[in-house]
Amino acid sequence: MFTLAIVGRPNVGKSTLFNRLVGRRLALVDDQPGVTRDLREGEAKLADLRFTVIDTAGLEDVTDDSLQGRMRRLTERAVDMADVCLFVVDARTGITPTDEVFADILRRRAPRVILAANKAEGAAGESGVLEAYGLGLGEPLRISAEHGEGMSDLMSVLRPVSEEFEERARRDAPATDLTVEDGEVTDHAPDKPLQIAIVGRPNAGKSTLINKFLGEDRLLTGPEAGITRDSISVTMDWDGRPVRLFDTAGMRKKAKVQDKLEKLSVSDGLRAVRFAEVVVVLLDSAIPFEQQDLRIADLAEREGRAVVVAVNKWDLEEDRQARLVGLKESFERLLPQLAGAPLVTVSAKTGRGLDRLQAAVMKAHDVWNRRVTTAKLNMWLSGMVEAHPPPAPAGRRIKLRYMTQVKTRPPGFVVMCSAPDKLSDSYKRYLVNGLRADFDMPGTPIRLTFRSQA
Ligand code: GDP
Ligand code: GDP
């Protein structure tokens, strides 16, 4: 059985959710923030899923430093006790600075985070849900703890976690020398491994690639799509840096029927993308950019992951120069939203190009975490405006006043301007592309938002 910690700032509805999951009124709920004290634990039941749930309610509103410290310690304790964290935000209030503090703790410390926007019943939570995307913790689940909405979505996210833990318990120290860690999720920062998902259609060569990285034939590979495999992740060392590679084959064993493969492997990819920091989209050079590849790549971008595109089986290509030109063209045309992502050609079989892939992944991860100073950004912004002034609808030039980076993982920037709604998409693209080029930020989505300031 796994342990889920419900974390978030006071009054977002953690206790209400805890009560719903536990089914007994173990935690006290009140309109006043922070009536419940300290951590409490209960046995949760969600349809047929059983798990332990920890509630971190019990913190007064965070106004002074001692409370902030207490909140932090309590949350860290819960995070360390849990296999998965459910980070709850209030869809009606939207994202607050305190939410950002929590998001930071979770990003640094929690091996797995599921984001939930609570109080999302009706339409009142819509903009809060959108804001929650900006936390860089993946797509928020819309839930209403009070009305019991979104529970089946929560269940479908938790089910694979539950299955992993059950399987691990069943296996219980196998007598083989496998170092393959099946859903091993217990270690934490500071040397938390960099989480890398290898996604791609069946037969793209994901297992072969991971084997090559491991240096031994530890994962089973074969010519048939969807062969039975249960590896979930492997941890290894890249030049002194711990990394964890997720193979997305784990759920494929359920696919008994061939034509179910496509669908399963997409939802499988989705799961891997959620837990990853960097996503390697592995393409088969003979059949690159299939529908399924495009969907997963797009998903990774929307989820705000750093992305590296790797074209595999390059050993089979005859005219590599021409092929590369063609691939780059297709890439630009079919995945314009990933314009900044590097494209690396590799052969998982021979190992050629894996050093370049490794370097591209590390670089994408660095960029994903990068913070640019406000001074540099504003100097840059005035240069951009000078070179190409924003449009002047109805004769009044839009003024871009000030810019700052508000988040990392992926980098997010806010520009204060006089009429954000009148700014054209092409001007926004000009700024995003400029940011990417001038600050050397390949392989990461860049979030640029505009706020009104007259
Ligand atoms: P916690 O302190 O973060 O654990 O939050 P509580 O569980 O005490 O809930 C805080 C307040 O939000 C209470 O008044 C709840 O009734 C209310 N609340 C909780 N969940 C929901 C929900 O899904 N929708 C709405 N509208 N209110 C909710
Ligand atoms: P997965 O389904 O994505 O895990 O793909 P596998 O790793 O099982 O590989 C599918 C097939 O492609 C196997 O027959 C591999 O031997 C083959 N393969 C994988 N990588 C390469 C490569 O770089 N070159 C060649 N020629 N074949 C490869």
From TrEMBL:
Stretches the record annotates as Disordered: 166-188
Record-listed GTP 2 binding positions: 200-207, 247-251, 312-315
HAMAP family assigned to the protein according to its UniProt record, in alphabetical order: GTPase_Der (MF_00195)
Upper classification of the organism: Bacteria, Pseudomonadati, Pseudomonadota, Alphaproteobacteria, Rhodobacterales
InterPro entries for this protein: G_ENGA, GTP-bd, GTPase_Der, KH_dom-like, KH_dom-like_a/b, P-loop_NTPase, Small_GTP-bd
Residue intervals of the EngA-type G domain: 2-166, 194-369
GO molecular function: GTP binding
Alphabetized CDD domains for the sequence: EngA1, EngA2
Residues passing through the membrane, by range: none
One record GO biological process: ribosome biogenesis
Name of the molecule in the record: GTPase Der
SUPFAM superfamilies in the record: P-loop containing nucleoside triphosphate hydrolases
Keyword annotations: GTP-binding, Nucleotide-binding, Repeat, Ribosome biogenesis
Family stated for the protein in its record: Belongs to the TRAFAC class TrmE-Era-EngA-EngB-Septin-like GTPase superfamily. EngA (Der) GTPase family.
UniProt-listed Pfam families: KH_dom-like, MMR_HSR1
Binding site for GTP 1: 8-15, 55-59, 118-121
Domain of life: Bacteria
Subunit structure: Associates with the 50S ribosomal subunit.
Function: GTPase that plays an essential role in the late steps of ribosome biogenesis.
